[in-house]
Specification:
Helices cover 36% and strands 27% of the residues. The protein has three helices and five strands, in the order ββααβββα.
């Protein structure tokens, strides 16, 4: 998965602010947590430096971050994903700031 950055432009009074796709997805996760796909969670985990681990089979995909050993299990059968999984990702993001 590549970590390319694509910008969207929002015109603000007195200037221009650029939002990355990551920023837009975080905003969507906060405002609409029950409308997030497994693919969007997978993208966010990639941006957060989680690596996908081999999946033997089943309904879960495991991701692990080498820097701190943090593990995230994504349930693949739910589309959209359950709100608790979105909340877990947002907690990881807040801890990193």
């Amino acid at each position: 998965m590549t970590n390319s950055i694509i910008y969207s432009t929002i015109i603000l009074q007195g200037g221009v602010k650029y939002l990355t796709k990551k920023d837009k997805l975080i905003k969507k996760m906060k405002t609409s947590p029950r409308n997030i796909s497994p693919d969007e969670i997978e993208k966010m985990l990639g941006w957060l430096n989680f690596d996908k681990r081999k999946n033997n089979a089943g309904s879960h995909q495991t991701f692990k971050r080498k820097s701190d050993g943090n593990v995230f299990n994504l349930v693949l059968t739910n589309n959209p994903v359950k709100k608790y999984q979105v909340d877990d990702i947002l907690k990881i993001i807040e801890e990193g700031e």
